[in-house]
Amino acid sequence: MPNLKRQKTVQEMEEPVVNLDVKYNTVDTEPDVQRPLGREYPKARSQMPEKQLFEFAEYRPQEAEKIGYSNYSYWKSVWQNFLKNKAAVVMGCVFVLLFVFTFVASAIGKYDIHMAPDPQNRAYIEPNAEYWFGTNGIGQDYWAQVWYATRASILLAVLVSFGQVTLGVLIGLVWGYVRKLDRFFTELYNLIDNIPTIIYMTLIALMVGKSMLTMGIAMVGFGWLATARNVRNLVFMYRDREYNLASRCLGTKLHRILFRNIFPYLVSVIILRLALAIPGTIAYETTLTYLGLMDIMLPSLGNLLSAARAVFPRAAYTLWFPAAIVSIITITFYLVGNAFSDACDPRNHV
Q1: Whole-prediction pTM value?
Q2: Do the domain assignments include residue 277?
Q3: What pLDDT digit, counting tens, does each position of 199-228 carry?
């Protein structure tokens, strides 16, 4: 019995001792650590005084409100998802550099775009050290012509595309949400869509004029159809959701319902439509110029491509340079548009 009692005493001594320091609010399980305050209790926390078990938690209203907030940012998440697509990021940088270079090219070029024509001595000179892109049919420097045309076509395409998408989104929101106007917009859509757009453009060019401003406004006036139809179908999906019904019952105004409740769900579709409209506008401008429906005194990509087709076997370089730039713009906006559209989709945010 004395041996057993001794073993039990040794076992109790080897057990860890819990030391709760009131001053530092720490629990120590090492038996040899000396603390200036507090008592030692081997096991039973139930035997500790209430002063050592509990501590008053101070309430701060500002910190309490922060608990309900989140650091999530929609556009920050969009940007992070977009950067994951390396191909789209690279092509986006290529397009930005291409557009910036259109302003730099005129400064580093040897000749101005308004160089006097010389069709006899300088017509269709192959690219060389003197003329980096060669010359055109009237002896002007093709380097200056190509880069000026690129800048003009990009600006025209961006402005027209923004106009088409903006008008299409506004009409599509009203068309899809207001039931009384559905019949009117449907008949208007059928009236414009069932007749080829080139007929409208021809009539406008003959009756009003062939200037870039006139044809640009005409392209906006007839280019909103596809965007409006797409937006209208999407609005039908969200119009009778519970939160929209609650907003109508509370008397929320129409424009707040459209732009606060429905419009955020359409961002990815709008971005994609805009990205595809820009190269589409350049291609459409090329077609109009080729058909003689746009009278552009200064060069554009469509104007250069139209002139190059007639002399392609003789001066193939006149087609290579503008065609390569149009291809780069088209591929860039296709990749960037799809990547940014996927990044804007809330379902892809984690």
Answers
A1: 0.70
A2: yes
A3: 988 899 888 888 888 888 999 988 888 899
